[in-house]
């Protein structure tokens, strides 16, 4: 998103609140201001609160506001970087090796990658919004 696009979408906190309301999400003044600042400054937004207060719905509404796809990284105890970034499709690699016969094949080609949420967003950040959900449930190493 260009700076001009951000300025048009987020002309003011009130404009953000109005556009969120059009997406059927009612934001109070402090949340609308935080979302406005995150969009205008191009910075991430951390929302915390008790279960059920609407953090996930806020992320969905922001993605809709920006016209982007929402990608969710659901955290849990034991999640590691591989689960958040990518995995190798070992079966597909083996099939390609068998099919190639005596020809050389690059088994580390992107076609053998299964992109997980972080990689999906890193590939085209201007088209996606990343929701890192329940990071407090992950191990301290992953959270850091």
Number of helices: 8
- Widest β-sheet, arrangement of strands: 1-4
Low-confidence stretches: none
Q: Which structural class do the helices and strands define?
A: alpha+beta
- Sequence of secondary-structure elements: HHHHEHEHEHEH
Please describe the biggest sheet, giving its number of strands, its sense, and whether it closes into a barrel: 2 strands, parallel
Q: In which range does the helix fraction lie?
A: 40-55%
Radius of gyration: 19 Å
Shape: elongated
Secondary structure: number of strands: 4
- The percentage of residues in β strands lies in 5-15%
Overall residue-averaged pLDDT value: 89
Amino-to-carboxy terminus distance? 28 Å
Q: How many domains comprise the coordinates?
A: 2
Reconstruct the topology from this structure.
Elements: H1 3-9, H2 13-22, H3 29-41, H4 55-66, E1 69-74, H5 81-85, E2 86-88, H6 90-100, E3 113-115, H7 117-123, E4 128-133, H8 140-143
Parallel strand pairs: 1-4
Antiparallel strand pairs: 2-3
Helix pairs in contact: 2-3
Can you walk through the features of this model?
With 144 residues, the chain is an alpha+beta fold. It has two domains: 1-67; 74-144, no CATH class. Helix content is 48%, strand content 12%. It is built from eight helices and four strands. It has helices at residues 3-9, 13-22, 29-41, 55-66, 81-85, 90-100, 117-123, 140-143; strands spanning 69-74, 86-88, 113-115, 128-133. The strands form two sheets. Strands 1-4 form a two-stranded parallel sheet. The protein has a two-stranded antiparallel ribbon with strand order 2-3. α2 packs across α3. The longest helix is centred in the N-terminal third of the chain and has 13 residues, at 29-41. It starts with a helix and ends with a helix. The mean pLDDT is 89.
């Amino acid at each position: 998103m260009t700076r001009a696009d951000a300025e048009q979408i987020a002309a003011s906190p009130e404009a953000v609140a109005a556009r969120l309301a059009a997406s059927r999400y009612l934001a109070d003044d402090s949340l609308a201001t935080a979302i406005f600042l995150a969009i205008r400054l191009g910075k991430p937004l951390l929302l915390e609160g008790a279960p059920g207060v609407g953090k996930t719905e806020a992320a969905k509404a922001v993605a809709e506001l920006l016209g982007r796809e929402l990608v969710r990284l659901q955290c849990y105890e034991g999640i590691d970087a591989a689960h958040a970034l990518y995995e190798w499709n070992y079966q597909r690699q083996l099939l390609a090796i068998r099919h190639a016969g005596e020809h050389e094949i690059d088994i580390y080609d992107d076609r053998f990658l299964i992109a997980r949420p972080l990689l999906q967003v890193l590939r085209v950040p201007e088209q996606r919004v990343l929701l890192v959900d329940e990071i407090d449930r992950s191990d301290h190493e992953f959270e850091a």
